[in-house]
Amino acid sequence: MSIRVMVVDDHPMWREGVARDLTEAGLDVVATSGEGRQAVRVAAAVRPDLVVLDLQLPDVSGVEVVRGLRAALPEVRVLMLSASGEPQSVLDAVKAGATGYLVKSAAPAEFLDAVRRTAAGEPVFTPGLAGLVLGEYRRLAAAPPAPHDDAPRLTDRETEVLRLVAKGLSYKQIAERLRLSHRTVQNHVQNTLGKLQLHNRVELTRYAIERGLDG
């Protein structure tokens, strides 16, 4: 099935260029928008799998748009595509619910790869930013809460995959480490997300770190 993508950026030439690149790569661009509030309304109507979102918009910040998108469409993936690689911008976007964060200087092939991986639920970051996000989650989890007795029970394999997710490994790396197929790893992650009532791999990583599974 084709990936349904929405592009949100206030610069018409950039927005149209991104939409054209996505279409030529075989993805289905279902909508574009230049404003944040409009983007949330349109996304709720067209229900994209993935939103490629600029951080700076004329009416509201991209971070606010992420919150609105996730409230309207809990399953939607959001890939931030921004000129800014400032650590605080990245952390704010991820905490709001963004799945990945790429700077606009990325090469076209890198961008298209990031779109496909983000749509599959992988957190994708410009090199150097993934460590920043994991480091922040580790800081927040410095004093993790005691595990709840009523926490959903994971299988041994799901726990094993979860530990590697918390270490920042990609699906491909996890598959190679455990000698599993890429699809099997994806299935384990999706099953774990469902059991824990989480929405994406970023939330799953934080859950694992809070419980000391990244050691």
UniProtKB/TrEMBL annotation:
Segments passing through the bilayer: none
Residues of the HTH luxR-type domain: 147-212
Swiss-Prot/TrEMBL keywords: DNA-binding, Phosphoprotein
Keyword Repressor included in the entry's annotation: no
The name this protein goes by in its record: Two component transcriptional regulator, LuxR family
4-aspartylphosphate: residues bearing it: 54
Domain Response regulatory: from-to ranges: 4-119
UniProt-listed GO biological process terms: phosphorelay signal transduction system; regulation of DNA-templated transcription
Organism of origin: Micromonospora humi
GO molecular function: DNA binding
